[in-house]
Amino acid sequence: MGTIRSVIPLEGYRLLIELNTGSSITVDLLPKLKTARFAELKDQSIFQDVKTDSDTVIWGDGVLKIPVFELIDVAVGSM
């Protein structure tokens, strides 16, 4: 699978995740914003404040942390 090299917030509550393998994946989080776990990301300032520690995508000061394998599951599930 690989580790996360970078994460870039896109319009429409999507993330572009680039892996150290050279692959990239776009994850659409808009449908997830209705869930309790992802609800805080509706705030654009929190959504835009995204970073990675190479295994996890992190928003704000740890408001929400999601491992790369879970984000890939979200992306694949929406195909």
UniProtKB/TrEMBL annotation:
Entry-linked InterPro entries: DUF2442 (IPR018841), NE0471-like_N (IPR036782)
Cited SUPFAM superfamilies: NE0471 N-terminal domain-like (SSF143880)
Matching Pfam families: DUF2442
Protein name as annotated: Uncharacterized protein DUF2442
